[in-house]
């Protein structure tokens, strides 16, 4: 009797990166929601989970997900920081359309239909924007956090131009553009979105903001008190790096993986 052959996965049209650090409590629910949404699409898709040097059971939870139809690729990025994880994930993609979203699925995944339609029509970059007309935002933030967000947006616009919301974790690109922009990315912290969008602009691509339904989900690792000054400093560094005449050298990131059939990634069908 011939040995069973491994199932051949269709080449995905869309790959979505999900960065995760110590997300054992939330990642199963988030990935289940994403898998169900992608399974309903009329084209093949794949999820790339980037374990960002987790010290909890995050990668074990991903491996233990019950079989579904959407393949999940699990890789590990040893360089801490959401920017480092997103960069590693984007560079691990091969699909013609790529992007990333947050593990809490704070952005309603119904927006994926608009994303794919616009990318397919030739728009090179499409990002969710809570500032776009028609967006529905459910959030309760303190006055201090709202003030900090206003200052951040004002500073970010010095780098990215008139983008209303640089920080919504729902960004998608033509594959070649996204990988080229990610290759130039140096910021590993929370302000990485600003540098990524700056590189998209420097590469001559336009960015389309779309309205989204977004809800504030508990469990965020961002602290206004602990991270704000560091984020403002990151914006200043990004501005220097991406201004005319600035240099955006390639960062050194450590990317490793635990895998059953490749040196660089593990694949889970979920």
From TrEMBL:
InterPro entries: Glyco_trans_2-like (IPR001173), Nucleotide-diphossugar_trans (IPR029044). Residues 16-153 form the Glycosyltransferase 2-like domain. This is Glycosyltransferase. One of its GO terms (molecular function) is transferase activity. Pfam families: Glycos_transf_2 (PF00535). One of its GO terms (biological process) is protein N-linked glycosylation. Residues 248-270 are annotated as: Disordered.
């Amino acid at each position: 009797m011939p040995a069973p052959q491994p199932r051949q996965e269709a080449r995905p049209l869309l790959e979505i990166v999900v960065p995760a650090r110590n997300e054992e409590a939330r990642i199963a629910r988030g990935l289940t929601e994403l898998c169900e949404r992608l399974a309903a699409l009329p084209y093949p898709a794949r999820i790339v989970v980037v374990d960002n040097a987790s010290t909890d059971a995050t990668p074990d939870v991903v491996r233990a997900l019950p079989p579904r139809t959407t393949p999940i690729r699990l890789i590990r990025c040893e360089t801490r920081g959401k920017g480092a994880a997103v960069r590693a994930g984007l560079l691990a993609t091969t699909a013609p359309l790529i992007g990333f979203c947050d593990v809490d699925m704070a952005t309603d995944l119904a927006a994926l239909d608009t994303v794919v339609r616009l990318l397919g029509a030739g728009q090179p970059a499409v990002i969710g924007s809570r500032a776009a007309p028609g967006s529905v935002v459910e959030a309760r933030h303190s006055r201090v956090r709202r003030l900090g967000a206003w200052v951040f947006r004002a500073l970010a616009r010095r780098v990215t131009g008139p983008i209303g919301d640089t920080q919504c974790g729902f960004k998608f690109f033509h594959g070649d553009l996204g990988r080229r922009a990610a290759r130039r990315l140096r910021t590993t912290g929370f302000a990485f979105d600003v540098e990524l969008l700056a590189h998209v602009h420097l590469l001559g691509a336009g960015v389309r903001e779309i309205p989204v339904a977004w809800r504030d989900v508990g469990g965020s690792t961002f602290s206004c008190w602990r991270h704000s000054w560091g984020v403002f400093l990151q914006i200043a560094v990004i501005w220097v790096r991406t201004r005319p005449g600035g240099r955006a050298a390639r960062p050194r990131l450590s990317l490793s993986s635990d895998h059953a059939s490749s040196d660089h990634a593990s694949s889970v069908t979920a």
